[in-house]
Design goal:
Blueprint: H1 7-26, H2 36-42
Helix pairs in contact: 1-2
């Protein structure tokens, strides 16, 4: 089955997920869990 995601889109989602994770950790906020959405969809 062919994946429906381009390589650029995948990298954008991974970078965005990592940024949200880092910000959530820095501010000690549960909003960092939102990073799971772009990270899971990137994989």
């Amino acid at each position: 089955m062919k994946k429906n995601i381009g390589s650029l889109d995948r990298w954008i989602r991974i970078v965005l997920g990592l940024i949200i994770t880092i910000l959530g950790y820095m501010y000690k906020s549960w909003w960092g869990l939102l990073a799971l959405i772009p990270l899971v969809t990137a994989y």
